[in-house]
Specification:
alpha+beta; Aminopeptidase; seven-stranded mixed β-sheet; globular
Length: 216
């Protein structure tokens, strides 16, 4: 399969929304953080995440950080994001997300419940203000898995990090997600540490998150 890599645009918002949600679900055996944070119908959830990908201020989920892998027909196969937390900090994520749901008519009680939904998740995947290259929201359509599309996409993102003159890249996967682990190891990542938590396991069905690092 021929794969073509390009930078995402605002027109990719719906596919990026799918990628954000799919990546969050990963190999979990229970609902993802977005399923808990947005207890609405699937299409409404995707609509909100699509809006987040174009919302201001630009955050980690903003389309400007994404690259897309597509086939010869121009159909998107895979998406992933690369960003520097120092430049797209947690505060930007919070502001953008609250702006999206407020625009959708969520009241203050709903907004507070939304933000509290990330408390347990953050124990194993904490947001930070670090000055490094982070790969996030990595998802590939089922029919394109195993074709090399994800590997090409992430290789391109790592080159972006080098162009950005970052010294290190980070990526993470849920414990037990061997498919993700194998791809990241092929790219040269090695495990740096695990964050395991009983509450996280009770809520999401996996023991925690493995964090990996690569010198660029």
């Amino acid at each position: 399969m021929e794969v073509y890599i390009r930078d995402a645009t605002a027109d990719d918002a719906d596919f990026i929304a799918w990628a954000i949600l799919t990546a969050a679900r990963g190999n979990l055996t229970k609902p993802s953080v977005w399923d808990l944070a947005m207890p609405v119908a699937e299409q409404e959830k995707l609509k909100l995440l699509s809006a987040l990908s174009v919302a201001e201020p630009p955050c980690a989920a903003h389309f400007s950080g994404f690259v897309i892998a597509e086939n010869e027909a121009g159909e998107p196969l895979s998406a992933a994001c690369g960003f520097v937390p120092k430049e797209k900090p947690p505060e930007a994520f919070t502001e953008a997300l609250l702006g999206v749901v407020e625009q959708a008519g969520w009241d203050q009680t709903q907004q507070m419940a939304l933000m509290s939904s990330f408390t347990v998740f953050a124990k194993c995947l904490p947001m930070s203000n670090e000055d490094l290259w982070v790969l996030e929201y990595i998802a590939t359509k089922p029919e394109a898995r195993g074709t090399g599309a994800t590997l090409e996409l992430l290789s391109d993102l790592l080159e972006c990090g080098r162009d950005y003159e970052m010294s290190d890249a980070n990526v993470a996967y849920f414990v037990g997600n061997d498919a993700a682990k194998n791809i990241y190891r092929k790219l040269g990542f090695t495990e740096s540490h695990e964050l395991l938590d009983k509450e996280f396991e009770a809520q999401f069905g996996v023991a925690g998150v493995v964090h990996m690092k690569l010198a660029l």
